[in-house]
Amino acid sequence: MPPFTKSVLASLLGATLVTVGTAMATKPPQLATIALVEQPWAVTLDITGYRIQVDGLKPDGRRYFLATNNAASIHLSVTLEAVSGQATEQGCLAHLERIARTSPEQPPQDITRYEIRQVPVLEYLLPETKGTPVDQLHLFACVRKDNVYTDIHVAKTGFTTGDDSRLREVLQSLAIIPAPLAGSLDHFRAGSVPYLQRQFRQAISHYEQAIALERTNPTLDRALWRLLVHNLAVAYGMTGDLARAKTTLDYGLSQDPANPLFHYDLARTYAGMNDRERAMQSLHAAFHNDRQRDAGDRIPDPRQDVSFKRFMLDPAFKELAESLMRPAI
After folding, report:
1. Residues 235, 242: Cα–Cα separation, whole Å
2. What is the pTM of this model?
3. Strand partners, 56
4. Among 93, 204, 266, 317, which is most buried by a count of CB atoms within 10 Å?
5. Domains in the chain, start-ordered, CATH in brackets?
6. Which residue from 168, 169, 184, 196 is spatially nearest to 14, judged by alpha carbons?
7. E-assigned strand segments in 238-329
């Protein structure tokens, strides 16, 4: 995939780009709803007074949510992880024990274990880190449902008496509710995890659902929509379904006819179909539209693209490829 495509996907899924808004102290309470797109349920927490920093997927498919209450110096993170089998109470307890064993600079005897609404909780105070006083109070909780573990971490820097009850209130607000209907961005994120791992068949179903939603109710911004069309076409191509790759690109070009990458992807698709004439036409259109842009990532050199290897011994195709790569006068 083009380098810019991979970088956009990585940032979309990672913990630096997906900043989705603010939840400030207002009435009624502000609830965060956190779910995996494949699950019919979601976790909710009261985040009144918190600002959402991250709400997305990690590259390994885990759902990650991070919010901060700067006025109170509190950080809240939630991670949902699907496993191959049933999530168990023993699994939750084992997870909390791993935290206890690996807690930095914290003697195990200072760790407190209890339950809040039948949810196991681990609590400890970290007086200092690397010799610097911090007085950080940490609460870890683990919730299990179906094949998913939910890891909740609440931490406050500058602990004073009574702060522990404030952190526990966050966990007391926890509830499991029916998940809201997943949108095109949710399916785009879910498909991009296997796509980046070159597991194209697993990516296709989520990308197809995202495209279907975009056709009826567009919500993605232009850059993400273009990336969705490109990725689905590539996934189809990599799994040998050239007919659906072409259909996807035809849809993309019907909405964005001057998009050079769509034309280039279509040229690749025609090459896979052994249709030299249409491949050449699409390549010409790709470079013509690419040169009309003032800025942006350039499309690849077809002479270095294995998709066109079968045609590079053809004099007409080779001449076209050479001419397209000559600097414009």
Report:
1. 10
2. 0.80
3. 64
4. 266
5. 18-178 (3.40.1000.10), 184-324 (1.25.40.10)
6. 196
7. none
Lookup result for tokens 């990585």: 10
Which of 24-38, 98-112, 158-172, 252-266 is predicted with the least confidence, judged by mean pLDDT? 98-112
Neighbours of 181 (CB within 10 A): 7
Q: Using one digit for the tens of pLDDT, what is the confidence trace for 147-161?
A: 999 999 999 999 888
Q: Does residue 101 or residue 312 have the better pLDDT? A: 312
260 burial (CB, 10 Å; 0-12 / 13-18 / 19+) is buried
Q: Is the peptide bond before 28 cis (omega within 30 degrees of 0)?
A: yes
The Cα 295–Cα 4 span in angstroms is 13
Token pair listed for 272 = 């896979």
- The pLDDT tens digits of the residues spanning 32-45 come to 999 999 999 999 99
Strands (E), 58-190: 63-69, 74-82, 112-116, 119-129, 132-145, 148-156, 175-178
- DSSP letters spanning 5-48: HHHHHHHHHSTTT-------S-SS--EEEE--TT-SEEEEEE-T
Dihedral angle computed from the Cα positions of residues 274, 276, 277 and 282, in that order, rounded to the nearest 10 degrees: 90
Arithmetic mean of pLDDT over the chain: 88
List the structure tokens of 275.
């249709």
Cβ within 8 Å of residue 80, ≥6 positions away = 34, 35, 36, 43, 62, 63, 148, 149, 150, 151
Asked if pLDDT for residue 285 goes beyond 90, the answer is yes
Cβ neighbours around 285 below 10 Å, total: 20
Residue 20: pLDDT band with limits 50, 70, 90 = very low
Q: Residue 118's beta-bridge partner residues?
A: none
Residues 6 or more apart whose CB falls under 8 angstroms from that of 131 comprise none
Q: Is 79 helix (H, G, I), strand (E, B) or coil?
A: strand
φ, ψ dihedrals at 190, nearest 5°: -65, -35
